[in-house]
Amino acid sequence: MQFHNPDADVFVPDAKAPDAALARTTHLCISAHQDDIEIMAYHGIAECFGLSDRWFTGVVVTNGAGSPRSGIYGHYTDEEMQHVRRQEQRTAAYVGGYACMIQLGYPSSAVKDPKSPSVVGDLQAILEAAKPEVVYLHNLADKHETHVATSLRALAALRRLSAQDRPKKVYGCEVWRDLDWLPDEAKQILPASKYPNVAAALVGVFDSQVSGGKRYDLATAGRRLAHATYYASHATDVETAMNFAMDLTPLVADPSLAVAPYVTAYIDSFKADVEKYLSKLMG
Ligand SMILES: [Zn+2]
């Protein structure tokens, strides 16, 4: 498969030919940065882990340039940092037993440009080759601009697929902003309790980010535990870790559906939910 960027990186942990590796995909995540996949889509990784009939593929759109650095990485140039991050992402793919790991290597500015056709074209080619049943994207209320842009480019690619190639389910996942505020009936529950050792390793391998001064390893596990605990006040916890997601499937099933009103309707529901108790209890 040929991508627009000559230095796009394709890594297949079990060394199968890339086309065959991609074709076995059942679960696929498209993220902005190295390490986002392991934070947001552990559900998909765990669903496929160690199985021969389900395979997880990761796609990272940006090149990891401009990331913060300290400690042993403090003196690294942007180019050296990109190399480190690419290797860390390959390591995660190896640990997680991914079908295929693709790093498209775009600068953030290219992803944020709605008129740049190459990002959407690359993503469309990947989706047509992989034909995943389940797709994980950043949620559209994320507070990181590149995350939202990546999700919009991925949605555009998904909307170009023929009806029979579209995934059955598209989740908008948590990284920079969680989804606890979604009304319970709208929350897509993504259990993340299986293989806690693998879950920890997958975030832990991104040493350049964690050593950079952000305990993503602890924060990611903490968020999943908090969600599992606080999700339902009257039930005993069945899951010890979970993520929440926004259902983006309707936006793919109906390419004419307007994106912004679809997302802000969830915010309107949240507002109505808060107002309900306040007006009832204020008397
Ligand atoms: Zn990110």
What does this structure look like?
- There is one protein chain.
- With 283 residues, the protein is of the alpha/beta class.
- It is 45% helix and 15% strand.
- The chain has helices at residues 18-23, 36-40, 42-48, 78-95, 108-112, 117-130, 145-160, 196-204, 207-210, 216-230, 249-253, 259-282; strands at residues 9-11, 27-31, 56-62, 100-106, 134-138, 169-173, 188-191, 242-247.
- Helix 4 (78-95) links the parallel strand 3 and strand 4 (100-106).
- It is globular and about 65 Å long.
- Zinc ion binds at residues 32-33, 36, 144, 147, 175.
Low-confidence stretches: none
Helix content estimate: 40-55%
**Given the C-alpha coordinates, what overall shape results?**
globular
Q: What is the first-to-last residue Cα distance?
A: 64 Å
Radius of gyration: 19 Å
Average pLDDT works out at 95
The major pleated sheet works out as: 8 strands, mixed
Please report the total strand number as a whole number.
Answer: 8
Bound molecules: zinc ion
Count of separate DSSP helical elements: 12
Strand content of the residues, in percent? 5-15%
Q: Secondary-structure element sequence? A: EHEHHEHEHHEHEEHHHEHH
Spatially, the strands of the biggest sheet line up as: 1-4-3-2-5-6-8-7
For this entry, give a set of tags:
single chain; 283 residues; alpha/beta; 45% helix; binds zinc ion
Per-chain topology:
Layout lengths: L8 E3 L6 H6 L3 E5 L4 H5 L1 H7 L7 E7 L15 H18 L4 E7 L1 H5 L4 H14 L3 E5 L6 H16 L8 E5 L14 E4 L4 H9 L2 H4 L5 H15 L11 E6 L1 H5 L5 H24 L1
Parallel strand pairs: 2-3, 2-5, 3-4, 5-6
Antiparallel strand pairs: 1-4, 6-8, 7-8
Helix pairs in contact: 4-8, 6-7, 8-10
The protein binds zinc ion.
